[in-house]
Specification:
Radius of gyration of chain A: 22 Å
Shape of chain A: globular
Helix content of chain A: over 70%
Order of helices and strands of chain B: HHHHHHHHHHH
Number of domains of chain B: 1
Largest sheet of chain B: none
Oligomer: heterotrimer
Low-confidence stretches of chain B: 1-12
Number of domains of chain A: 1
Chains: A mainly alpha (261), B mainly alpha (271), C alpha/beta (300)
Mean pLDDT of chain B: 86
Distance between the termini of chain B: 33 Å
Structural class of chain A: mainly alpha
Largest interface: B-C, 45 and 58 residues
Number of helices of chain A: 11
Shape of chain B: globular
Chain lengths: 261, 271, 300
C-alpha cells in the first residue's frame, strides 16, 4: 500500500437499488417512523370497519369502491406527512451528515427517498384495497347482496392521486426542510386554500377563469373522470407544475447546494 | 476488589438556602415569553402570523373594493380564521414541544425543578400571545374598515359588541389551548400538529357524515364535537345548552389530553 | 457537599446504576471515572432530578435537588453541552439562564469573558459552534449563578489542550475557595491530573474510591516499574539482571521492574550513561483497567 493515489478501479459506485433499500429501512427503523406507518394501517382498518358497521346497521347500499374510497380519504392526510418526514428527519436528526458522506451524489439520495415514498404509498393502496375487499365480502355475507364495482380506472386514479398527495408533501418538505413548517403549509394547501379559491372564484370573475389552472386539487378530478378533454389535462399539468414541480425543483436545488450541518 | 477512602463527612457542609428566594412565577413567564421569539424559527412564526393576518385582510379589502361588495367590521374580523385561528394552535404546540425536540427541557427543568410552574408559565405565555394576536386583529380590522369606508364611500358599519369581542378572545385562546393540550399529550411537534390539523379539518366532516347516517350519533355529536360547540361563539349567540355542550366537548378535547399530558410531563425522565 | 446513598436506577431488566453510595466533599474536586456506559451520566441525572431513582437518594448540601429554591444559584449543572436550542445564539442561551436565576445581563458578559468566548462568537448560533465552544458555553452556563456545587458531565470533551489546562485551573481554584466539584470522565489522565478524590464506576457499581495515593497503596501487589534508556542499553541490562531484576526491551530503551532510584544506582555502579529515566506511569491505568475489566468492551 505505497501508492500515492487511491485505486478506485475495483470499487463499484453504490447501486441505486441499495440506496433505495437503505432509505426504505430508515422509514421504519425508528419508533416514530414505525408508528406513523402503523397508524396509517390502523386508520385504514378502522375507517373501513366503521364504514362496514354503519352501512350494515343502517342498511345502506355500498360498493367495493366506496370502502376503498373511505380509506383513501383518510390516507390522503397521512401519506403527505410520510412524504414530509422521509426528507425532513434527515435534517432534524442531523443524519444528513452521515447520509451525504456515504453517498455524495445527493440527487440519487433524494431520488431514493422519493421512491421510498412512492413504494410506501403503493403499499398503502394495496392494504386499503385488500381490507376493502374483505369488508365488501363481509358486507355481502351480512346483507345478502354485494356490488364489486371498482373498475381498473378507479383503481388507477386512486393510486395516482395518492402518489401525487405524497409527492406534494415531499415537495414542500424539500422546499422548507423543516417538519412543523412543512406540515402546517401542507394542511393549509389541502384544506384552507380550496375554500379561499372557492370564495375568490365566486367574487371575482377573472379569478373564476384562472382558478382551474392554479387549483391542483380540483384539477385532479380529471384523473378520476379519465377526462377526454385536453383542456382538463392541460390544467392538471399547469397546476401540477405550480404546486409540485416548482417547489420540488427549488427545494432540490436548495438541498444540493446546502451546507449540511 | 473494593477500596474505601473512609470519607468522613465534615461539619458545616450543608447548603444554606435560607436566604434564597424561590424563582418568582413572573420571572418564569418572562423567560418563557423570551424563548418564543429569540430563535429565528420562533421569531418568524410570530411575524408570519401577524403578516398573514394583515395580508388576508388587505386582500379582502381589495376584493370588496374592486367588486363593490358590502362588508362590515365583523367580516374583516372573521377572515382571521385563515390566519390567527390556524397558526395560534401551532404556536401553542411549539411552545411546549420545542423543549423536547431541542432538548432544552434538561436545562429548563434543572433551573426550575418545580415542573408544574414551568408548564403554567408556558400556558400563560400562550394565552398572552393569543390575546396579543386578537388585539392586532382588532386594530387591523379597524384600519381596514376605515379604509373601506373612505375608499368605497359606503357607510361604515361597526357591528361589534363587547360580548362579541370577548367571544372572539375566548375562541382564539381555546384554539391555542387545544394545540397546547395535544402537544402535552404527544410531546412531539409533527405528531401534535398532524393531530391538531386532523382534529380541526378532518374530524368535522367525519362527524357530519356520521350524524347524517346514524340517528343516535346525530344526538350525540353536539356533545362530543368541540369544533361545532364553538360555532355559536363566533357570532356570540351562546345559549344555556350551547354552554353545556361547550363544557362537555371541551372536557373531552381540552381537559383530558391536558391532564394526561401534564401527568406525563411531570413524571417523565427528561433526556 | 453531595451525598449519594444507595442509589439504584433500573430500566426494565437493565440496571444502569446499582446501589451506588459516595460523598463529594467541599473544597475538593471529585473525579467520577468509568468506561462508556458505566452509569456516570445516569447518576448525575438523578442528582439534578431529571431522572427519578428506582431506589436510594441524592442530597446536595443536605437537600433534595427539587427542594432547593432557585437551584441555579446553588448548584451549577452541565450534563450535555449540545442539549440547547440550535437556533439560539450563545449569548442568548446564557441570557435566558441569567433571567431565570434573576441575574443582571452584566453577569452574562462576565461569564463569556471567563470562558474566552469573544463577543462575535457569542453572537453566533449554537448550530455553528464547535464541540469545544459548546463545552465552554456549557461551563459558563453552569457557573452563571455563582454556585457552591458544580456537577459536570464530561466537561473536557472536545476542549483543545489549552482549554483542558484552562478548565483544570478553573476547577482547582474553584475547589480551593471551598466549592464542591464533581466531574465525570472516561479518560484516566484527565481525572488523574485534576481530581483530589476519585470514584471508579463500572457496570453501574462503584469498584473503588479514594485519592490517588490510597488507590495505589491498596492496589498493593502491582510492582513498580521504570523506563530507562542508556547509551549502552546492553551493559545496563546485564548489570540489572545481575541483581536479579527483570528487564525487558521497550522501544529504544528498557522496561525495568524496579523503582527509578534502584535503576539509577545500578547505572552509576555499572558506569552506564543514562539519557532517559522515568517511572512507568501505567500503574493507575492498570488498576483502572483491572477494576473495570468485567465491564470493558475490549479485552485488556
Amino acid at each position: 500500500m505505497t501508492a500515492m493515489t487511491l485505486d478506485l478501479s475495483g470499487t463499484e459506485p453504490t447501486p441505486f437499488g441499495r440506496l433505495l433499500r437503505v432509505e426504505l429501512r430508515k422509514s421504519y427503523d425508528t419508533r416514530a417512523g414505525r408508528w406513523l406507518l402503523i397508524s396509517i394501517g390502523l386508520l385504514v382498518l378502522a375507517a373501513e370497519t366503521i364504514a362496514l358497521a354503519v352501512t350494515t346497521v343502517q342498511d345502506e347500499a355500498m360498493q367495493f369502491g366506496d370502502f376503498v374510497g373511505t380509506a383513501a380519504f383518510l390516507t390522503s392526510f397521512l401519506l403527505p406527512v410520510l412524504g414530509i418526514m422521509v426528507l425532513t428527519t434527515e435534517w432534524t436528526q442531523r443524519t444528513a451528515m452521515v447520509t451525504f458522506a456515504l453517498e455524495p451524489r445527493r440527487p440519487l439520495v433524494i431520488a431514493a427517498k422519493a421512491m421510498v415514498g412512492v413504494v410506501l404509498t403503493l403499499a398503502t393502496v394495496v392494504v386499503s384495497t385488500v381490507i376493502g375487499a374483505v369488508c365488501n365480502a363481509l358486507y355481502g355475507a351480512i346483507e345478502g347482496h354485494v356490488d364489486w364495482t371498482f373498475g381498473w380506472s378507479d383503481f388507477a386514479a386512486f393510486t395516482i392521486t395518492q402518489v401525487l398527495a405524497m409527492l406534494g408533501g415531499f415537495a414542500l418538505a424539500a422546499l422548507l426542510l423543516n417538519t412543523p413548517a412543512a406540515i402546517v403549509v401542507f394542511f393549509v394547501y389541502k384544506w384552507v386554500l380550496p375554500g379561499l379559491f372557492e370564495v375568490g372564484a365566486q367574487l371575482i370573475g377573472w379569478f373564476g377563469d384562472l382558478r382551474p389552472w392554479i387549483d391542483f386539487q380540483m384539477a385532479q378530478n380529471a384523473i378520476w373522470d379519465w377526462s377526454h378533454s385536453a383542456g382538463d389535462w392541460g390544467e392538471l399539468v399547469v397546476s401540477g407544475f405550480l404546486w409540485l414541480g416548482v417547489p420540488l425543483v427549488w427545494g432540490i436545488w436548495r438541498v444540493l447546494r446546502a451546507e449540511v450541518k | 476488589m473494593s477500596i474505601s477512602s473512609g470519607a468522613t463527612p465534615a461539619l458545616g457542609h450543608s447548603l444554606d438556602i435560607s436566604s434564597t428566594q424561590p424563582t418568582p412565577f413572573l420571572r418564569l413567564v418572562r423567560t418563557e415569553l423570551r424563548k418564543t421569539w429569540d430563535t429565528r424559527a420562533g421569531f418568524w412564526l410570530l411575524l408570519s402570523t401577524a403578516i398573514l393576518t394583515g395580508l388576508v385582510m388587505v386582500i379582502q379589502l381589495w376584493v370588496v373594493l374592486v367588486q363593490d361588495l358590502e362588508v362590515s367590521y365583523n367580516d374583516f374580523l372573521t377572515s382571521t380564521n385563515f390566519s390567527i385561528a390556524l397558526l395560534l394552535p401551532v404556536i401553542g404546540i411549539l411552545l411546549l414541544t420545542s423543549e423536547w425536540s431541542q432538548r432544552t427541557a434538561m436545562v429548563t427543568f434543572s433551573l426550575e425543578p418545580r415542573r408544574p410552574l414551568v408548564i403554567a408559565a408556558k400556558l400563560v405565555v400562550g394565552i398572552a400571545l393569543a390575546v396579543a394576536a386578537v388585539v392586532i386583529a382588532l386594530v387591523l380590522a379597524t384600519v381596514c374598515n376605515l379604509l373601506y369606508g373612505a375608499m368605497s364611500g359606503s357607510e361604515v358599519e361597526w357591528d361589534l359588541s363587547v360580548l362579541q369581542t370577548l367571544s372572539f378572545v375566548l375562541l382564539q385562546v381555546i384554539g391555542m389551548l387545544t394545540g397546547f393540550a395535544f402537544a402535552a399529550l404527544l410531546l412531539s411537534s409533527p405528531a401534535a400538529i398532524v393531530l391538531y390539523m386532523v382534529y380541526s379539518f378532518v374530524l368535522p366532516s367525519i362527524f357530519g357524515i356520521g350524524a347524517a347516517l346514524i340517528g343516535w350519533f346525530e344526538d350525540l355529536q353536539p356533545w362530543i364535537d368541540f369544533n361545532d360547540a364553538q360555532t355559536p361563539l363566533i357570532d356570540a349567540t351562546m345559549t344555556g345548552e350551547d354552554w353545556a355542550q361547550f363544557a362537555v366537548s371541551g372536557f373531552i378535547w381540552l381537559v383530558i389530553p391536558l391532564a394526561i399530558g401534564l401527568w406525563r410531563v411531570l413524571r417523565a425522565e427528561v433526556k | 457537599m453531595i451525598t449519594v446513598e444507595g442509589l439504584t436506577r433500573k430500566y426494565g431488566s437493565f440496571t444502569a446504576v446499582d446501589n451506588v453510595s459516595f460523598v463529594c466533599q467541599p473544597g475538593r474536586v471529585t473525579g467520577f471515572l468509568g468506561p462508556n456506559g458505566a452509569g456516570k451520566t445516569t447518576t448525575m441525572r438523578v442528582m439534578v432530578g431529571l431522572t427519578p431513582p428506582t431506589a436510594g437518594r441524592v442530597t446536595i448540601g443536605g437537600h433534595l435537588y427539587s427542594d432547593i429554591p432557585n437551584p441555579g444559584r446553588h448548584v451549577g449543572v452541565l450534563l450535555d453541552a449540545s442539549a440547547q436550542h440550535a437556533g439560539r445564539t450563545g449569548r442568548e442561551i446564557l441570557e435566558l439562564g441569567a433571567r431565570t436565576m434573576g441575574l443582571p445581563s452584566s453577569r452574562v458578559d462576565e461569564m463569556l469573558e471567563l470562558v474566552s468566548l469573544t463577543p462575535v462568537e457569542a453572537k453566533r448560533r449554537l448550530r455553528n459552534y464547535s464541540l469545544g465552544m459548546k463545552q465552554r458555553l456549557g461551563i459558563a452556563h453552569a457557573l452563571l449563578g455563582d454556585p457552591s456545587v458544580l456537577i459536570l458531565d464530561e466537561p473536557a470533551n472536545g476542549l483543545d489542550p489549552a482549554g483542558i489546562r484552562w478548565m483544570r485551573g478553573l476547577l482547582k481554584g474553584y475547589a480551593e475557595r471551598g466549592g464542591t466539584v464533581l466531574l465525570s470522565s472516561h479518560l484516566l489522565h484527565e481525572v488523574e491530573q485534576i481530581a483530589d478524590e476519585m470514584i471508579l464506576i463500572g457496570n453501574g457499581r462503584i469498584v473503588a474510591q479514594g485519592d490517588k495515593k490510597s488507590l495505589l497503596a491498596n492496589a498493593g501487589d502491582s510492582v513498580a516499574a521504570s523506563f530507562v534508556t542508556a547509551l549502552d542499553n546492553e551493559r545496563l541490562a546485564q548489570a540489572l539482571q545481575a541483581k536479579g531484576i527483570t528487564v525487558a526491551k521497550a522501544g529504544e530503551g528498557l522496561r525495568v521492574e524496579a523503582e527509578t532510584v534502584e535503576v539509577g544506582r545500578t547505572a552509576l555502579e555499572s558506569g552506564a550513561v543514562l539519557t532517559d529515566l522515568r517511572s512507568a506511569e501505567g500503574r493507575l491505568e492498570d488498576l483502572f483497567l483491572e477494576l473495570t475489566a468485567e465491564t470493558q468492551r475490549e479485552a485488556v
